[in-house]
Amino acid sequence: MKPCRELVGYARVSTQDQSLHLQKDALKKAGCRKIFQDIISGGKADWPGLDDALKYPREGDTIVVWRLDRFGRSLKDLIEKITLLKERGVGFRSLQENIDTTTVGGKLIFHVFGALAEFERELIRERTHAGLKAARARGRLGGRPRILNTKKVALLQSLHKDQSNSIRDICKTLGISRATLYRYSVSGFSKK
Predict the structure, then answer these.
(1) Which residues are catalytic?
(2) Which residues of 69-96 are buried (b: 16+ CB within 10 A; e: fewer)?
(3) What are the beta bridge partners of residue 93?
(4) pTM exceeding the 0.85 threshold for the entire prediction
């Protein structure tokens, strides 16, 4: 990676009641001249200030945040963003955790985070497979349970063939929605 050309700051708080002053002051003290910001919950899908901060830096620049949780929704999300920056030749630095991917030590920490995230995904995958296997051994199959059994399907079709029964009455009697009725009935019936 080339020597740092520009430090680009990013600050985020979750609500209007919170202040960006602490983060922005720390970012300025660290040498950031350009600071992007968001006042938005971490659970929201779009962080427009972060999107702009990720697009802005050129090769050799470094994005600086006050704390890791300001930059990503999860460890996986954080690692993905930092990996994309690395591919573009952009560094990443977190002031509170003292992580700087432009240094050897920072790269090591980042790789440890990546390994931990991968380990966590593998554990989740293994537990999921073990749970599914145990359920199958007890005779349970995956997927959504059927709403209607064979007898109810036969009753539904019988009621549906009788033109004196309205769709609404059939659905109310069987406790099902119109979509379920049409899914289980023979196609070609006219709607009432």
Answers:
(1) 14
(2) ebbbeeeeebbebbeebbeeebbbbbbe
(3) 64, 100
(4) no
